[in-house]
Amino acid sequence: MDHEQRAYRAALGGFATGVTVVSTAASDGFHATTANSFTSVSLSPRLVLVCLTTGSRTLGAILDSGFFAVSVLGSAQEDLSAHFASRDRAPGSAGFAGTRFTLDRHGCPRFTDSSATFACRVHEALPGGDHVIVVGEVAAYTSRPATDPLLFHEGRYARLEPAAALELAG
């Protein structure tokens, strides 16, 4: 990565994001990767998007299967995020050893204790430079609103500070 790319990446890091693990089930087993490029697209129909690196195993498995799940990680799931961000983990289903998950109706893993999960059918895949923008139609979801989110900011994990009580002038 050259100086200009590092500077651009650092500037982008000023935008705090949530952290997700995107997963799927393919003929050769489970696949997953950590992603912070996740957002809602539409309420009706229910659409979300995630951006995945072109040529990644997880992207290929998602496009082959036509289904994926997104687990929005809570603050206690930093280890899970780091695990699926690592290039050193075992490929395929072996990389899921020791993790806690359930399967959605399409067999895609959704991680236990996440603040939200989304079971998706691939709606569209669009080229986006060195990534592919995968738009998914949400078939099912879960939500645990009391779960504090895991955040990523300036190249490291972050957590929300408790909100300060507001004092109203009387």
Write up what this structure looks like.
By secondary structure, this protein is an alpha+beta fold. The protein has a single domain, classed as Electron Transport, Fmn-binding Protein, Chain A (Pnp Oxidase, Chain A). Helices cover 16% and strands 42% of the residues. It is built from 3 helices and 12 strands. The protein has a 7-stranded antiparallel beta sheet with strand order 3-2-6-9-10-5-4. It has a 3-stranded antiparallel beta sheet with strand order 1-11-12, with no helix packed on it. A hairpin with a 4-residue loop joins strand 4 and strand 5. The relative contact order is 0.22. The mean pLDDT is 92. Its EC number is 1.5.1.-. One of its GO terms (molecular function) is monooxygenase activity.
Outline of this structure?
This protein is an alpha+beta fold and 170 residues long. The chain has helices spanning 3-12, 57-65, 78-85, and strands at 17-18, 20-26, 29-35, 38-42, 47-53, 67-72, 101-103, 109-111, 116-128, 131-143, 151-153, 156-158.
Write the layout of secondary structure elements.
Layout (H helix, E strand, L loop, with lengths): L2 H10 L4 E2 L1 E7 L2 E7 L2 E5 L4 E7 L3 H9 L1 E6 L5 H8 L15 E3 L5 E3 L4 E13 L2 E13 L7 E3 L2 E3 L12
Antiparallel strand pairs: 1-11, 2-3, 2-6, 4-5, 5-10, 6-9, 7-8, 9-10, 11-12
Q: Unreliable runs, pLDDT <50, ≥5 residues? A: none
SSE pattern, N- to C-terminal: HEEEEEHEHEEEEEE
CATH level-two architecture: Roll
| Alpha-beta classification | alpha+beta
Strand arrangement in the largest pleated sheet:
3-2-6-9-10-5-4
What's the CATH class, please? Mainly Beta
The portion of residues assigned to helices is: 10-25%
Radius of gyration: 17 Å
Question: CATH H level: which superfamily?
Answer: Electron Transport, Fmn-binding Protein, Chain A
Major β-sheet, in short? 7 strands, antiparallel
Beta-strand fraction estimate: 35-45%
Number of distinct helices: 3
Mean of residue pLDDT values: 92
Distance between the termini: 56 Å
Here the CATH topology equals: Pnp Oxidase, Chain A
The shape, in one word, is globular
The domain tally reads 1
The tally of beta strands, per DSSP, is 12
